Amino acid sequence: xxxxxxxxxxLALLIALGFSFFQNLHKNRKTSGNLALFxxxxxxxxxxxxxxxxxxxxxxxxxxxxxxxxxxxDASESIKILQKDSVLQNFQNKILxxxxxxxxxxxxxxHFGRELITSDITSNFSxxxxxxxQSLKQAEDLMDNNKGVVVLLSDxxxxxxxxxxxxxSSGSTEILPVIIGDTSSFEDVAIQRINxxxxxxxxxxxAVEVFLNYSGSNERNTKLHILNSGKVVFQKDMxxxxxxxxxxxxxxxxxxxxxxxxxxxxxxxxxxxxxxxxNTENFSVEIVDESxxxxxxxxxxxxxxxxxxxAIESNSQRMxxxxxxxxxxxxxxxxxxxxxxxxxxxxxxxxxxxISGLEAGKLFxxxxxxxxxxxxxLQLGFxxxxxxxxxxxxxxxxxxxxIYQPKHxxxxxxxxxxxxxxxxxxxxxxxxxxxxxxxxxxxxDSPLLAVSRVHPKIGLLTGENIWRWRAASFRKDQNFQxxxxxxxxxxxxxxxxxxxxxxxxxHPQTFLENELVEISAAYYDENYSFDSGANLNISIxxxxxxxxxxxxxxxxxxxxxxxxxxxxxxxYTYKLxxxxxxxxxxxxxxxxxxxxxEQQQTANLAAMQFLAANNNxxxxxxxxxxxxxxxxxxxxxxxxxxxxxxxxxxxxxxYYLLFLLVFALALEWFYRKYKGLI
Length: 678
What we know:
Blueprint: H1 3-24, H2 32-53, E1 56-65, E2 67-74, H3 77-81, H4 85-97, H5 99-104, E3 105-112, E4 116-117, H6 132-142, E5 148-154, E6 173-179, E7 188-196, E8 199-201, E9 205-215, E10 220-228, E11 231-240, E12 246-254, E13 259-267, E14 280-288, E15 292-298, H7 303-312, E16 318-324, E17 338-342, H8 349-355, E18 361-365, H9 372-377, E19 382-384, E20 390-397, E21 417-420, E22 424-426, E23 431-439, E24 442-452, E25 458-461, H10 467-477, H11 481-494, E26 503-506, E27 510-512, E28 517-523, E29 536-541, E30 547-552, E31 554-555, E32 560-565, E33 570-578, E34 583-592, H12 605-614, E35 620-621, H13 625-634, E36 641-650, H14 655-674
Parallel strand pairs: 2-3, 2-5, 5-6, 6-35, 8-14, 15-16, 15-17, 17-18, 18-25, 27-34
Antiparallel strand pairs: 1-36, 3-4, 7-9, 9-12, 10-11, 10-13, 13-14, 19-22, 20-21, 20-23, 23-24, 24-25, 26-28, 28-32, 29-30, 29-33, 31-32, 33-34
């Protein structure tokens, strides 16, 4: 209390005493009655003056704040499948009903599946996906960095989201994993993943890559079957052991008829295998009849021409014609989907003028004999200041290339291509680099292979003698399959879309049950530039022809997207339509009967232990409630915190002073009334 406040209180007291003295004692006798009136009046006036001054009173309030204890209970189907739903609920209820824990903690109960569920409603264990990492993060966010404990009641089997093992809590939060479920290990074989292209061409073979995994320590034999419409189209004996746990099977299947084909990959059951749900995996491939014609144009003979023709025509749906520029004629060029121009020079001028207005794609292959001055004049989005000096370059792939998924070649084992000495520049907005040049062991930013991002498609291979790559591929694998696949993917990307393919749909051929079905599309105007102002709609029908959904597509990041939602397992067809002009695209996909929660039959002990170790915490088991409780009760870091808070309150807010004032005035009035003074 400062001097000014003391002065004001003193002054108020003197005024109250002085005023009351002159009113009650100055001209009156000092009787007991007058003294009483003097005191009451002095007290009343003093209170009034104090209220007018409105002093502020500061005081300290202390309270005990409990640490939060958040129960994070797994509500996914896997808990019920493991028959551990009652076990989890029992552990949860013991925490909630523990008087000792309730005395020490503020207990909050959450559930989770794909995300955190803050409702207090008892879980029925029906969540179809499990995201432990996301739920841990959301629970900590709700605690707002306050000190607390998160108790994770789960089997540790996560099937969506980021790996929860690497989740790191804030320094104020402790994570205590409680493992619900059987931690015993059983022998198990599983199909981990299947890689297959969306499309395959009629009367050709297509590759299927199946990744297999074995859990166990014994030598086991099983068999992999791939079935189509119940008929076995591929089979192979598999041998697993402790040292041979992961296997990759490459199968080639025949594309015999057009349409969406559904396949099933199945591993035979081991004698003591408990979980057989992960022994089967479904996939789909759409077989298309899409013949195309490619023309190779060159100043003269070159070994590259034959290598390219052989690689392209390994796909029976493609036909290659080789022409020399001096003999070139422009008859029936509209049937060509791709022109490959090898070592362009000024003799190509009339040829390029003839094909420049066509929708066909173009692949330029350059070398020491290429006339780069002429190419630069064409303004195709790439240029080079070269000299007549050959240079050997090796290839290295660009890991960020995302135009399409090319077949993998062991580029480090391939011989060099020859380029004209000089640095090649490309327009990064128009082209994406697939391969970079390696010169004398140094990786450069110069492109060896680049493809355009927009239509009409243009490709640039800056080195010649690609026939050497074909020969090297054969020496390594005793076949041309890898090289043919590499060239085939490039040709497929560069081949011009047909006029009725200005509307293009993109989506996986197969979706899993409970997975978001998303279909994207691209719409190009008459110049094959992306049109962001189109009105696209899609109609989806089931296998019986019943319309399931009609919706519009939304433009998003140079594409149109329709998020369909979760569809029931089955085969579906769709019609994608642009209203102006009236373009129509038909397609198909299927939704596989797949329950991610059924894929594991035991608790993921290793993952839960890793989470605990990563957070310097402790793992508990479903039958260790007493140990768990004792740990929390004896841990001094979780003691309630004594919180002090200073509060400043204006004197006028002290309502009982008003009562005292009213009481003093009323008492004085009654006394004067009683004495007949009023």
